[in-house]
Amino acid sequence: MTSSPVKFGIAQLNPIIGDLVGNCDRLLSAVKRLAAQGVQLVLTPELSVCGYPPRDLLMHHQFVRDMDSAIADLAQKLPHDLAVLVGTVYVNPQASQVGGKPLFNSAALLQDGQVQQIFHKRLLPTYDVFDEDRYFEVGEGSQVFTLKLPDQASLRVGVTICEDIWNDEKFWGKRNYADDPVAELAQKEVDLLV
To answer: Average pLDDT over the chain, rounded to whole?
Structure first.
């Protein structure tokens, strides 16, 4: 943990579903503005590269490949001295061998010109208008990365994606999912939960 202040920014954008190029351009512009303010970590919305909910666009393999290329291109264009968590999808490499959904609803950690780490959403809503389990595989395990700070200090950052934080049985009066990603991250003694 560090004693120096950490400055992070939230790129609160309104991504357009399917507009990979436009969404990445908006992300890049927002991150550059935040970088000029001295932030060390930028957070973006869930599925910010493709827009939410992408629904059956995810059935098109070329769309998913184009998203992967867009992320790699965005990583190279971003300022290299800060970390950016970008909402995207990620191919489930196990699906063809062991079954399961072909994709994960994910966040990619972009830094130093490349994708450093991928985090997968663990709690997939299926109520009301949500049908995420139609497209996505459930992520497994607590998700942590180390954010290096300019003064040689670092922070352990726990990553959640949307619904992952909505399983507090004390708040809701019941448990909605078997897993509780926030409780697991708390046990890992993260310095920051995003």
So the answer is: 93
